[in-house]
Amino acid sequence: MYPVLDKQSNVGVLALTPQCPSVFPHFLLQDQFENLDKHTQWGIDFLERYAKFVKERLEIEQTYAKQLRNLVKKYCPKRSKDEEPRFTSCLSFYSILNELNDYAGQREVVAEEMGHRVYGELMRYSQDLKAERKHHLQEGRKAQQYLDQCWKQMDNSKKRFERECREAEKSQIVFEKLDNDINATKSEVEKAKSQLYLRTHMADESKNEYAAQLQNFNGEQWKHFNVAIPQIFKNLQDMDERRTVKLGETYRSFAEVERKVIPIISKCLEGMVTAAKNVDERRDSALVVESFKSGFEPPGDFPFEDFSQNIQRTGSDGTIGTPKNDTGKPDPKHTIGKAKNKLWLFGKKPKLPPPIPPPPLPSFASAHFQVERIAHCLNEIRTVKSKIPSFRGLKRGAPNLEDLSHLPPEQRRKKLQQRIDELSRELQKEMDQRDALNKMKDVYEKNPQMGDPSSLQPKISETICNMEKLRSEIHKNETWLSEVEGKQGSRGDRRPSGDVNHHAPHGRESPEGSYTDDPSQEHRSPPQPDPHEFDDEFEDDDPLPAIGHCKALYSFDGSNEGTLVMKEDEMLYVIEEDKGDGWTRVRKQGGEEGYVPTSYVEITMEKHSKGAVTYI
Which burial class, exposed, middle or buried, applies to 366 when counting CB atoms under 10 A from its CB (0-12, 13-18, 19+)? Predict the structure, then answer.
Protein backbone atom coordinates (compact mmCIF):
# COMPACT_ATOMS: atom_id res chain seq x y z
CA MET A 1 0.00 0.00 0.00
CA TYR A 2 1.41 3.32 -1.03
CA PRO A 3 -0.23 6.81 -1.17
CA VAL A 4 -1.39 7.57 -4.74
CA LEU A 5 -2.90 10.50 -6.60
CA ASP A 6 -6.50 10.51 -7.83
CA LYS A 7 -5.99 12.12 -11.23
CA GLN A 8 -9.64 13.12 -11.68
CA SER A 9 -9.94 15.11 -8.48
CA ASN A 10 -6.26 16.04 -8.01
CA VAL A 11 -6.61 15.11 -4.32
CA GLY A 12 -4.12 12.85 -2.46
CA VAL A 13 -5.82 9.66 -1.22
CA LEU A 14 -4.70 6.22 -0.01
CA ALA A 15 -5.44 3.41 -2.42
CA LEU A 16 -4.11 -0.01 -3.36
CA THR A 17 -2.11 -0.13 -6.57
CA PRO A 18 -1.50 -3.79 -7.42
CA GLN A 19 -1.02 -2.86 -11.07
CA CYS A 20 2.27 -1.06 -10.36
CA PRO A 21 4.13 -2.84 -7.57
CA SER A 22 7.62 -2.25 -8.96
CA VAL A 23 7.75 1.50 -8.26
CA PHE A 24 6.78 3.82 -5.48
CA PRO A 25 3.39 5.20 -6.58
CA HIS A 26 3.38 8.97 -6.80
CA PHE A 27 1.35 11.09 -4.45
CA LEU A 28 0.71 14.74 -3.81
CA LEU A 29 0.69 15.19 -0.08
CA GLN A 30 4.01 16.45 1.29
CA ASP A 31 3.78 14.31 4.44
CA GLN A 32 4.04 11.14 2.31
CA PHE A 33 7.39 12.33 1.01
CA GLU A 34 8.48 12.83 4.60
CA ASN A 35 7.30 9.31 5.46
CA LEU A 36 9.51 7.88 2.73
CA ASP A 37 12.36 9.98 4.08
CA LYS A 38 11.84 8.42 7.53
CA HIS A 39 11.51 4.90 6.08
CA THR A 40 14.76 5.05 4.11
CA GLN A 41 16.55 6.49 7.15
CA TRP A 42 15.23 3.60 9.26
CA GLY A 43 16.54 1.12 6.67
CA ILE A 44 20.03 2.59 6.82
CA ASP A 45 19.93 2.62 10.65
CA PHE A 46 18.91 -1.05 10.66
CA LEU A 47 21.79 -1.92 8.33
CA GLU A 48 24.26 -0.13 10.60
CA ARG A 49 22.78 -1.86 13.62
CA TYR A 50 23.42 -5.23 11.98
CA ALA A 51 26.96 -4.08 11.12
CA LYS A 52 27.49 -3.25 14.79
CA PHE A 53 26.24 -6.73 15.72
CA VAL A 54 28.77 -8.31 13.32
CA LYS A 55 31.54 -6.14 14.78
CA GLU A 56 30.78 -7.26 18.32
CA ARG A 57 30.65 -10.89 17.15
CA LEU A 58 34.06 -10.70 15.48
CA GLU A 59 35.47 -9.00 18.59
CA ILE A 60 34.20 -11.97 20.61
CA GLU A 61 35.93 -14.32 18.15
CA GLN A 62 39.16 -12.36 18.39
CA THR A 63 39.05 -12.37 22.20
CA TYR A 64 38.25 -16.08 22.23
CA ALA A 65 41.13 -16.87 19.87
CA LYS A 66 43.51 -14.72 21.88
CA GLN A 67 42.53 -16.41 25.14
CA LEU A 68 42.96 -19.84 23.54
CA ARG A 69 46.45 -18.93 22.31
CA ASN A 70 47.40 -17.61 25.75
CA LEU A 71 46.12 -20.82 27.29
CA VAL A 72 48.18 -22.91 24.87
CA LYS A 73 51.25 -20.75 25.51
CA LYS A 74 50.77 -21.09 29.26
CA TYR A 75 50.75 -24.89 29.19
CA CYS A 76 53.24 -25.45 26.37
CA PRO A 77 56.63 -26.80 27.51
CA LYS A 78 59.14 -24.06 28.16
CA ARG A 79 62.11 -26.42 28.21
CA SER A 80 63.94 -27.86 25.26
CA LYS A 81 62.59 -30.96 23.58
CA ASP A 82 65.48 -33.05 24.93
CA GLU A 83 64.53 -32.22 28.50
CA GLU A 84 60.83 -32.89 28.05
CA PRO A 85 59.44 -36.27 29.08
CA ARG A 86 58.75 -38.68 26.25
CA PHE A 87 55.71 -40.32 27.81
CA THR A 88 52.80 -40.89 25.49
CA SER A 89 50.46 -39.08 27.87
CA CYS A 90 52.67 -35.96 27.70
CA LEU A 91 53.12 -36.21 23.93
CA SER A 92 49.36 -36.58 23.47
CA PHE A 93 48.74 -33.55 25.67
CA TYR A 94 51.21 -31.50 23.61
CA SER A 95 49.46 -32.71 20.43
CA ILE A 96 46.16 -31.54 21.90
CA LEU A 97 47.74 -28.16 22.63
CA ASN A 98 48.93 -27.92 19.01
CA GLU A 99 45.47 -28.82 17.72
CA LEU A 100 43.92 -26.27 20.07
CA ASN A 101 46.35 -23.67 18.75
CA ASP A 102 45.23 -24.49 15.20
CA TYR A 103 41.62 -24.25 16.37
CA ALA A 104 42.37 -20.78 17.75
CA GLY A 105 43.83 -19.91 14.35
CA GLN A 106 40.55 -20.90 12.70
CA ARG A 107 38.64 -18.65 15.11
CA GLU A 108 40.95 -15.84 14.03
CA VAL A 109 40.15 -16.68 10.39
CA VAL A 110 36.43 -16.42 11.21
CA ALA A 111 36.95 -13.02 12.82
CA GLU A 112 39.08 -11.81 9.91
CA GLU A 113 36.59 -12.98 7.27
CA MET A 114 33.68 -11.44 9.17
CA GLY A 115 35.54 -8.19 9.42
CA HIS A 116 36.43 -8.16 5.72
CA ARG A 117 33.45 -9.77 4.00
CA VAL A 118 30.60 -8.71 6.28
CA TYR A 119 31.39 -5.78 8.55
CA GLY A 120 33.64 -3.92 6.13
CA GLU A 121 31.22 -4.45 3.25
CA LEU A 122 28.26 -3.28 5.33
CA MET A 123 30.03 -0.10 6.42
CA ARG A 124 31.05 0.77 2.85
CA TYR A 125 27.55 0.07 1.55
CA SER A 126 26.04 2.14 4.37
CA GLN A 127 28.10 5.15 3.29
CA ASP A 128 27.01 4.66 -0.31
CA LEU A 129 23.36 4.39 0.73
CA LYS A 130 23.58 7.59 2.74
CA ALA A 131 25.05 9.48 -0.19
CA GLU A 132 22.48 8.06 -2.64
CA ARG A 133 19.56 8.75 -0.32
CA LYS A 134 20.74 12.30 0.22
CA HIS A 135 20.96 12.82 -3.56
CA HIS A 136 17.43 11.50 -4.20
CA LEU A 137 15.92 13.55 -1.39
CA GLN A 138 17.65 16.67 -2.65
CA GLU A 139 16.21 16.07 -6.14
CA GLY A 140 12.72 15.66 -4.65
CA ARG A 141 13.06 18.87 -2.69
CA LYS A 142 14.33 20.74 -5.73
CA ALA A 143 11.36 19.51 -7.82
CA GLN A 144 8.98 20.58 -5.07
CA GLN A 145 10.62 24.00 -4.80
CA TYR A 146 10.39 24.51 -8.59
CA LEU A 147 6.70 23.58 -8.56
CA ASP A 148 6.08 25.99 -5.69
CA GLN A 149 7.84 28.73 -7.63
CA CYS A 150 5.64 28.12 -10.69
CA TRP A 151 2.57 28.21 -8.49
CA LYS A 152 3.60 31.55 -6.99
CA GLN A 153 4.12 33.08 -10.47
CA MET A 154 0.72 31.81 -11.57
CA ASP A 155 -0.89 33.11 -8.39
CA ASN A 156 0.70 36.57 -8.83
CA SER A 157 -0.54 36.85 -12.44
CA LYS A 158 -3.99 35.75 -11.32
CA LYS A 159 -4.11 38.40 -8.60
CA ARG A 160 -2.91 41.08 -11.03
CA PHE A 161 -5.57 40.05 -13.58
CA GLU A 162 -8.21 40.20 -10.88
CA ARG A 163 -7.06 43.65 -9.83
CA GLU A 164 -7.00 44.97 -13.42
CA CYS A 165 -10.46 43.62 -14.01
CA ARG A 166 -11.81 45.46 -11.01
CA GLU A 167 -10.12 48.68 -12.14
CA ALA A 168 -11.59 48.23 -15.62
CA GLU A 169 -15.06 47.73 -14.15
CA LYS A 170 -14.71 50.94 -12.16
CA SER A 171 -13.58 52.85 -15.25
CA GLN A 172 -16.58 51.51 -17.17
CA ILE A 173 -18.99 52.60 -14.45
CA VAL A 174 -17.43 56.12 -14.42
CA PHE A 175 -17.62 56.37 -18.22
CA GLU A 176 -21.28 55.27 -18.35
CA LYS A 177 -22.16 57.72 -15.61
CA LEU A 178 -20.52 60.66 -17.39
CA ASP A 179 -21.95 59.60 -20.73
CA ASN A 180 -25.49 59.68 -19.36
CA ASP A 181 -24.93 62.97 -17.47
CA ILE A 182 -26.17 65.94 -19.58
CA ASN A 183 -24.20 68.32 -17.51
CA ALA A 184 -20.84 66.59 -18.18
CA THR A 185 -18.60 68.25 -20.66
CA LYS A 186 -17.30 66.53 -23.72
CA SER A 187 -13.74 66.64 -22.47
CA GLU A 188 -14.70 64.84 -19.26
CA VAL A 189 -16.51 62.19 -21.27
CA GLU A 190 -13.55 61.69 -23.57
CA LYS A 191 -11.19 61.46 -20.63
CA ALA A 192 -13.33 58.78 -18.95
CA LYS A 193 -13.56 56.94 -22.24
CA SER A 194 -9.77 56.88 -22.71
CA GLN A 195 -9.36 55.72 -19.08
CA LEU A 196 -11.81 52.88 -19.70
CA TYR A 197 -9.95 51.90 -22.84
CA LEU A 198 -6.61 51.83 -20.93
CA ARG A 199 -7.97 49.76 -18.06
CA THR A 200 -9.64 47.35 -20.46
CA HIS A 201 -6.38 46.94 -22.37
CA MET A 202 -4.44 46.31 -19.17
CA ALA A 203 -7.03 43.75 -18.03
CA ASP A 204 -6.70 41.94 -21.34
CA GLU A 205 -2.92 41.83 -20.97
CA SER A 206 -3.22 40.56 -17.40
CA LYS A 207 -5.69 37.97 -18.61
CA ASN A 208 -3.31 36.77 -21.27
CA GLU A 209 -0.40 36.66 -18.79
CA TYR A 210 -2.53 34.79 -16.25
CA ALA A 211 -3.58 32.26 -18.86
CA ALA A 212 0.05 31.69 -19.88
CA GLN A 213 1.19 31.29 -16.28
CA LEU A 214 -1.71 28.97 -15.54
CA GLN A 215 -0.93 26.85 -18.55
CA ASN A 216 2.78 26.72 -17.58
CA PHE A 217 1.96 25.78 -13.98
CA ASN A 218 -0.40 23.04 -15.08
CA GLY A 219 2.28 21.62 -17.34
CA GLU A 220 4.97 21.72 -14.67
CA GLN A 221 2.59 20.23 -12.15
CA TRP A 222 1.83 17.34 -14.49
CA LYS A 223 5.51 16.77 -15.05
CA HIS A 224 6.15 16.96 -11.32
CA PHE A 225 3.57 14.37 -10.34
CA ASN A 226 3.79 12.13 -13.38
CA VAL A 227 7.52 12.20 -14.21
CA ALA A 228 9.83 13.75 -11.61
CA ILE A 229 8.30 12.49 -8.36
CA PRO A 230 7.64 8.92 -9.62
CA GLN A 231 11.22 8.72 -10.85
CA ILE A 232 12.57 9.94 -7.51
CA PHE A 233 10.35 7.48 -5.63
CA LYS A 234 11.42 4.67 -7.96
CA ASN A 235 15.06 5.50 -7.22
CA LEU A 236 14.33 5.44 -3.49
CA GLN A 237 12.52 2.11 -3.90
CA ASP A 238 15.46 0.63 -5.83
CA MET A 239 17.83 1.86 -3.15
CA ASP A 240 15.71 0.32 -0.40
CA GLU A 241 15.39 -2.99 -2.25
CA ARG A 242 19.13 -3.11 -2.86
CA ARG A 243 19.64 -2.49 0.84
CA THR A 244 17.37 -5.45 1.62
CA VAL A 245 19.23 -7.66 -0.88
CA LYS A 246 22.57 -6.63 0.61
CA LEU A 247 21.33 -7.58 4.07
CA GLY A 248 20.35 -11.01 2.78
CA GLU A 249 23.78 -11.48 1.17
CA THR A 250 25.59 -10.50 4.34
CA TYR A 251 23.40 -12.88 6.35
CA ARG A 252 24.51 -15.65 4.02
CA SER A 253 28.14 -14.54 4.16
CA PHE A 254 27.93 -14.50 7.96
CA ALA A 255 26.95 -18.17 7.91
CA GLU A 256 29.35 -19.11 5.09
CA VAL A 257 32.34 -17.78 7.02
CA GLU A 258 31.51 -20.11 9.90
CA ARG A 259 30.74 -23.08 7.64
CA LYS A 260 33.99 -22.62 5.69
CA VAL A 261 36.17 -23.41 8.72
CA ILE A 262 34.10 -26.36 9.95
CA PRO A 263 36.16 -28.97 8.00
CA ILE A 264 39.44 -27.68 9.46
CA ILE A 265 37.93 -27.49 12.94
CA SER A 266 36.72 -31.07 12.49
CA LYS A 267 40.29 -32.11 11.61
CA CYS A 268 41.54 -30.40 14.77
CA LEU A 269 39.01 -32.30 16.86
CA GLU A 270 39.93 -35.54 15.09
CA GLY A 271 43.57 -34.84 15.89
CA MET A 272 42.67 -34.47 19.56
CA VAL A 273 40.82 -37.80 19.48
CA THR A 274 43.80 -39.44 17.75
CA ALA A 275 46.13 -38.02 20.40
CA ALA A 276 43.91 -39.48 23.09
CA LYS A 277 44.06 -42.89 21.40
CA ASN A 278 47.87 -42.73 21.26
CA VAL A 279 48.17 -42.82 25.06
CA ASP A 280 49.91 -46.12 25.84
CA GLU A 281 50.37 -47.00 29.49
CA ARG A 282 52.74 -49.89 28.77
CA ARG A 283 55.04 -47.73 26.69
CA ASP A 284 55.09 -45.11 29.44
CA SER A 285 56.01 -47.76 31.98
CA ALA A 286 58.80 -49.00 29.70
CA LEU A 287 60.12 -45.45 29.39
CA VAL A 288 60.13 -45.09 33.18
CA VAL A 289 62.09 -48.30 33.51
CA GLU A 290 64.52 -47.23 30.79
CA SER A 291 64.96 -43.75 32.29
CA PHE A 292 65.68 -44.87 35.83
CA LYS A 293 67.52 -48.12 35.16
CA SER A 294 70.75 -47.77 37.13
CA GLY A 295 72.67 -50.84 36.02
CA PHE A 296 73.50 -51.75 39.61
CA GLU A 297 73.79 -55.42 40.49
CA PRO A 298 71.35 -56.70 43.13
CA PRO A 299 72.98 -57.29 46.49
CA GLY A 300 74.34 -60.80 47.03
CA ASP A 301 73.36 -63.26 49.71
CA PHE A 302 74.66 -62.73 53.23
CA PRO A 303 77.43 -65.21 54.08
CA PHE A 304 77.05 -67.57 56.95
CA GLU A 305 79.42 -66.51 59.72
CA ASP A 306 80.24 -69.56 61.82
CA PHE A 307 81.42 -68.51 65.27
CA SER A 308 81.43 -72.06 66.65
CA GLN A 309 84.62 -73.18 64.94
CA ASN A 310 86.77 -72.83 68.06
CA ILE A 311 84.28 -74.29 70.54
CA GLN A 312 85.63 -77.58 71.93
CA ARG A 313 83.10 -80.35 71.74
CA THR A 314 83.19 -83.36 74.14
CA GLY A 315 82.02 -86.86 73.52
CA SER A 316 79.31 -86.50 76.18
CA ASP A 317 77.60 -83.74 74.24
CA GLY A 318 74.50 -85.07 72.66
CA THR A 319 74.59 -82.48 69.87
CA ILE A 320 75.96 -82.74 66.43
CA GLY A 321 79.07 -80.56 66.32
CA THR A 322 80.99 -79.06 63.52
CA PRO A 323 84.30 -80.80 62.76
CA LYS A 324 87.10 -78.82 64.30
CA ASN A 325 90.33 -78.02 62.68
CA ASP A 326 93.34 -79.78 64.10
CA THR A 327 95.58 -76.74 63.89
CA GLY A 328 93.19 -74.56 65.84
CA LYS A 329 93.13 -72.00 63.05
CA PRO A 330 89.84 -70.82 61.61
CA ASP A 331 88.93 -72.09 58.19
CA PRO A 332 89.70 -69.44 55.54
CA LYS A 333 86.29 -70.11 54.04
CA HIS A 334 84.65 -68.86 57.22
CA THR A 335 86.44 -65.57 57.75
CA ILE A 336 84.31 -62.65 58.73
CA GLY A 337 82.83 -61.10 55.56
CA LYS A 338 82.37 -57.37 55.12
CA ALA A 339 79.31 -55.90 53.51
CA LYS A 340 79.11 -52.61 55.31
CA ASN A 341 78.88 -50.36 52.26
CA LYS A 342 76.58 -52.48 50.17
CA LEU A 343 73.91 -50.39 48.40
CA TRP A 344 70.43 -51.62 49.23
CA LEU A 345 67.47 -51.10 46.89
CA PHE A 346 65.06 -49.50 49.38
CA GLY A 347 67.41 -47.77 51.78
CA LYS A 348 70.17 -48.66 54.18
CA LYS A 349 71.11 -52.20 55.15
CA PRO A 350 69.08 -53.43 58.11
CA LYS A 351 71.05 -53.65 61.27
CA LEU A 352 71.87 -57.15 62.45
CA PRO A 353 72.02 -58.07 66.12
CA PRO A 354 75.55 -57.97 67.44
CA PRO A 355 77.26 -61.38 67.51
CA ILE A 356 77.86 -63.08 70.84
CA PRO A 357 81.58 -63.04 71.59
CA PRO A 358 83.08 -66.51 71.92
CA PRO A 359 84.55 -67.61 75.22
CA PRO A 360 88.29 -67.19 75.62
CA LEU A 361 90.48 -70.11 74.64
CA PRO A 362 93.80 -70.78 76.33
CA SER A 363 95.26 -72.43 73.28
CA PHE A 364 97.51 -70.91 70.62
CA ALA A 365 94.56 -70.94 68.20
CA SER A 366 92.67 -68.62 70.52
CA ALA A 367 95.58 -66.16 70.59
CA HIS A 368 95.86 -66.27 66.82
CA PHE A 369 92.13 -65.71 66.53
CA GLN A 370 92.37 -62.67 68.79
CA VAL A 371 95.14 -61.21 66.60
CA GLU A 372 92.97 -61.64 63.52
CA ARG A 373 90.01 -59.96 65.22
CA ILE A 374 92.23 -57.01 66.20
CA ALA A 375 93.46 -56.76 62.59
CA HIS A 376 89.88 -56.88 61.40
CA CYS A 377 88.87 -54.06 63.78
CA LEU A 378 91.81 -51.93 62.68
CA ASN A 379 90.86 -52.46 59.07
CA GLU A 380 87.27 -51.44 59.82
CA ILE A 381 88.45 -48.27 61.60
CA ARG A 382 90.67 -47.38 58.63
CA THR A 383 87.76 -47.94 56.26
CA VAL A 384 85.44 -45.71 58.28
CA LYS A 385 88.05 -42.97 58.49
CA SER A 386 88.72 -43.06 54.76
CA LYS A 387 85.01 -42.48 54.17
CA ILE A 388 84.79 -39.29 56.18
CA PRO A 389 85.38 -37.09 53.08
CA SER A 390 82.53 -38.95 51.41
CA PHE A 391 80.17 -38.01 54.23
CA ARG A 392 81.29 -34.41 53.98
CA GLY A 393 80.71 -34.53 50.26
CA LEU A 394 77.18 -35.81 50.83
CA LYS A 395 76.55 -32.96 53.24
CA ARG A 396 77.66 -30.25 50.82
CA GLY A 397 76.14 -31.97 47.73
CA ALA A 398 77.85 -34.09 45.10
CA PRO A 399 79.67 -32.02 42.48
CA ASN A 400 78.70 -32.10 38.84
CA LEU A 401 81.61 -34.25 37.72
CA GLU A 402 82.81 -33.98 34.16
CA ASP A 403 82.99 -37.73 33.61
CA LEU A 404 79.53 -38.17 35.20
CA SER A 405 80.92 -40.74 37.63
CA HIS A 406 78.40 -39.56 40.24
CA LEU A 407 75.63 -41.17 38.17
CA PRO A 408 74.63 -44.84 38.19
CA PRO A 409 76.34 -46.91 35.47
CA GLU A 410 73.41 -47.14 33.08
CA GLN A 411 72.52 -43.46 33.40
CA ARG A 412 76.18 -42.54 33.03
CA ARG A 413 76.42 -44.61 29.85
CA LYS A 414 73.36 -42.89 28.36
CA LYS A 415 74.58 -39.40 29.24
CA LEU A 416 78.06 -40.09 27.84
CA GLN A 417 76.58 -41.49 24.61
CA GLN A 418 74.33 -38.45 24.30
CA ARG A 419 77.30 -36.12 24.87
CA ILE A 420 79.35 -37.99 22.25
CA ASP A 421 76.51 -37.65 19.72
CA GLU A 422 76.24 -33.90 20.36
CA LEU A 423 80.00 -33.43 20.04
CA SER A 424 79.97 -35.47 16.82
CA ARG A 425 77.31 -33.20 15.35
CA GLU A 426 79.29 -30.11 16.31
CA LEU A 427 82.42 -31.68 14.80
CA GLN A 428 80.57 -32.35 11.56
CA LYS A 429 79.45 -28.71 11.43
CA GLU A 430 83.01 -27.53 11.96
CA MET A 431 84.22 -29.90 9.21
CA ASP A 432 81.58 -28.59 6.80
CA GLN A 433 82.59 -25.03 7.64
CA ARG A 434 86.25 -25.89 7.06
CA ASP A 435 85.43 -27.44 3.67
CA ALA A 436 83.39 -24.41 2.69
CA LEU A 437 86.20 -22.05 3.69
CA ASN A 438 88.73 -24.11 1.74
CA LYS A 439 86.51 -23.99 -1.35
CA MET A 440 86.11 -20.25 -0.95
CA LYS A 441 89.86 -19.90 -0.57
CA ASP A 442 90.41 -21.86 -3.80
CA VAL A 443 87.94 -19.60 -5.59
CA TYR A 444 89.76 -16.51 -4.28
CA GLU A 445 93.09 -17.94 -5.40
CA LYS A 446 91.76 -18.58 -8.91
CA ASN A 447 89.92 -15.24 -9.05
CA PRO A 448 91.83 -12.68 -6.96
CA GLN A 449 89.37 -9.93 -7.87
CA MET A 450 86.71 -11.68 -5.77
CA GLY A 451 88.67 -11.50 -2.51
CA ASP A 452 91.91 -11.97 -0.65
CA PRO A 453 92.66 -15.68 0.12
CA SER A 454 94.82 -14.76 3.13
CA SER A 455 91.82 -13.12 4.83
CA LEU A 456 90.25 -16.58 5.25
CA GLN A 457 93.29 -18.18 6.89
CA PRO A 458 92.51 -16.99 10.49
CA LYS A 459 89.00 -18.39 10.20
CA ILE A 460 90.31 -21.68 8.82
CA SER A 461 92.83 -21.94 11.64
CA GLU A 462 90.17 -21.22 14.22
CA THR A 463 87.94 -23.91 12.69
CA ILE A 464 90.77 -26.47 12.73
CA CYS A 465 91.51 -25.62 16.37
CA ASN A 466 87.84 -26.12 17.24
CA MET A 467 87.90 -29.46 15.44
CA GLU A 468 90.90 -30.61 17.44
CA LYS A 469 89.22 -29.60 20.69
CA LEU A 470 86.07 -31.46 19.72
CA ARG A 471 88.04 -34.57 18.73
CA SER A 472 89.82 -34.46 22.08
CA GLU A 473 86.52 -34.17 23.92
CA ILE A 474 85.04 -37.02 21.89
CA HIS A 475 88.05 -39.22 22.61
CA LYS A 476 87.89 -38.43 26.31
CA ASN A 477 84.18 -39.23 26.51
CA GLU A 478 84.64 -42.40 24.46
CA THR A 479 87.29 -43.49 26.94
CA TRP A 480 84.88 -42.98 29.82
CA LEU A 481 82.15 -44.76 27.87
CA SER A 482 84.36 -47.77 27.18
CA GLU A 483 85.29 -47.83 30.87
CA VAL A 484 81.61 -47.93 31.84
CA GLU A 485 80.79 -50.58 29.27
CA GLY A 486 83.80 -52.65 30.38
CA LYS A 487 82.67 -52.55 34.01
CA GLN A 488 79.14 -53.52 33.07
CA GLY A 489 80.47 -56.42 31.00
CA SER A 490 82.67 -57.68 33.80
CA ARG A 491 79.80 -57.32 36.27
CA GLY A 492 77.53 -59.29 33.97
CA ASP A 493 80.07 -62.15 33.85
CA ARG A 494 79.98 -62.67 37.62
CA ARG A 495 77.40 -65.04 39.05
CA PRO A 496 76.45 -65.33 42.73
CA SER A 497 77.84 -68.44 44.41
CA GLY A 498 75.66 -70.90 46.23
CA ASP A 499 78.29 -71.50 48.96
CA VAL A 500 77.06 -70.01 52.19
CA ASN A 501 80.65 -69.45 53.35
CA HIS A 502 81.69 -67.51 50.24
CA HIS A 503 82.39 -63.82 50.87
CA ALA A 504 80.30 -61.30 48.91
CA PRO A 505 82.22 -58.46 47.19
CA HIS A 506 82.64 -55.42 49.34
CA GLY A 507 80.66 -52.38 48.22
CA ARG A 508 82.39 -49.05 48.34
CA GLU A 509 81.42 -45.40 48.09
CA SER A 510 83.00 -42.77 45.89
CA PRO A 511 84.59 -39.60 47.31
CA GLU A 512 81.17 -37.92 46.95
CA GLY A 513 79.06 -40.78 48.26
CA SER A 514 78.22 -42.65 45.02
CA TYR A 515 78.24 -46.42 44.83
CA THR A 516 81.02 -48.21 43.00
CA ASP A 517 82.03 -51.79 42.50
CA ASP A 518 85.61 -52.50 41.45
CA PRO A 519 86.38 -56.19 40.78
CA SER A 520 90.05 -55.65 41.53
CA GLN A 521 89.17 -54.80 45.14
CA GLU A 522 86.94 -57.79 45.87
CA HIS A 523 89.26 -60.46 47.36
CA ARG A 524 92.02 -58.43 48.98
CA SER A 525 93.09 -59.69 52.38
CA PRO A 526 93.09 -57.21 55.23
CA PRO A 527 96.51 -55.65 55.98
CA GLN A 528 98.61 -56.88 58.86
CA PRO A 529 98.28 -54.79 61.99
CA ASP A 530 100.97 -52.23 62.66
CA PRO A 531 101.77 -51.44 66.33
CA HIS A 532 101.99 -47.71 65.57
CA GLU A 533 99.14 -47.57 63.08
CA PHE A 534 96.36 -47.76 65.64
CA ASP A 535 97.27 -44.41 67.19
CA ASP A 536 97.81 -42.72 63.84
CA GLU A 537 94.34 -43.63 62.61
CA PHE A 538 92.72 -41.25 65.10
CA GLU A 539 95.02 -38.30 64.56
CA ASP A 540 93.02 -36.12 62.14
CA ASP A 541 95.73 -33.49 61.92
CA ASP A 542 98.39 -35.90 60.58
CA PRO A 543 98.39 -36.20 56.77
CA LEU A 544 97.77 -39.55 55.16
CA PRO A 545 100.92 -41.37 54.01
CA ALA A 546 101.75 -41.45 50.32
CA ILE A 547 101.11 -44.86 48.79
CA GLY A 548 102.46 -43.91 45.37
CA HIS A 549 103.03 -41.07 42.96
CA CYS A 550 101.41 -39.99 39.70
CA LYS A 551 102.02 -37.78 36.69
CA ALA A 552 99.30 -35.49 35.27
CA LEU A 553 98.54 -36.38 31.65
CA TYR A 554 96.11 -33.48 31.22
CA SER A 555 95.34 -30.24 32.97
CA PHE A 556 92.40 -30.20 35.38
CA ASP A 557 90.70 -27.00 36.57
CA GLY A 558 89.31 -28.44 39.84
CA SER A 559 86.26 -26.15 39.81
CA ASN A 560 84.15 -28.42 42.02
CA GLU A 561 84.47 -28.51 45.78
CA GLY A 562 86.80 -31.24 47.02
CA THR A 563 88.76 -31.44 43.75
CA LEU A 564 92.34 -30.32 43.16
CA VAL A 565 93.75 -28.15 40.41
CA MET A 566 96.63 -29.70 38.49
CA LYS A 567 98.66 -28.87 35.41
CA GLU A 568 99.90 -31.14 32.68
CA ASP A 569 103.09 -33.15 33.54
CA GLU A 570 102.78 -32.15 37.22
CA MET A 571 104.00 -34.77 39.72
CA LEU A 572 101.69 -35.56 42.66
CA TYR A 573 101.61 -37.96 45.62
CA VAL A 574 98.87 -40.59 45.74
CA ILE A 575 97.39 -40.84 49.25
CA GLU A 576 94.21 -42.77 48.41
CA GLU A 577 93.72 -44.92 45.36
CA ASP A 578 90.67 -45.06 43.13
CA LYS A 579 87.86 -47.06 44.70
CA GLY A 580 86.11 -47.60 41.38
CA ASP A 581 84.35 -44.22 41.13
CA GLY A 582 86.93 -42.68 38.76
CA TRP A 583 88.57 -40.38 41.36
CA THR A 584 91.95 -40.59 43.06
CA ARG A 585 92.98 -38.59 46.12
CA VAL A 586 96.35 -36.90 45.70
CA ARG A 587 98.56 -34.38 47.46
CA LYS A 588 100.73 -31.69 45.97
CA GLN A 589 104.27 -31.10 47.14
CA GLY A 590 103.01 -28.02 48.94
CA GLY A 591 100.65 -30.14 51.04
CA GLU A 592 97.36 -29.31 49.27
CA GLU A 593 95.09 -32.36 48.97
CA GLY A 594 92.08 -33.15 46.80
CA TYR A 595 90.56 -35.49 44.21
CA VAL A 596 91.50 -35.66 40.53
CA PRO A 597 90.10 -37.86 37.72
CA THR A 598 91.92 -41.20 37.55
CA SER A 599 91.91 -41.09 33.75
CA TYR A 600 93.83 -37.80 33.85
CA VAL A 601 96.90 -39.20 35.64
CA GLU A 602 99.45 -42.00 35.29
CA ILE A 603 99.74 -43.68 38.69
CA THR A 604 102.66 -45.73 39.98
CA MET A 605 102.09 -47.45 43.32
CA GLU A 606 104.94 -48.02 45.79
CA LYS A 607 106.28 -51.54 46.31
CA HIS A 608 105.43 -51.59 50.00
CA SER A 609 101.81 -50.62 49.24
CA LYS A 610 99.05 -52.96 48.11
CA GLY A 611 100.80 -53.69 44.85
CA ALA A 612 102.98 -52.00 42.30
CA VAL A 613 100.30 -51.18 39.74
CA THR A 614 100.34 -48.56 37.01
CA TYR A 615 97.01 -46.89 36.00
CA ILE A 616 96.71 -44.97 32.77
Answer: middle
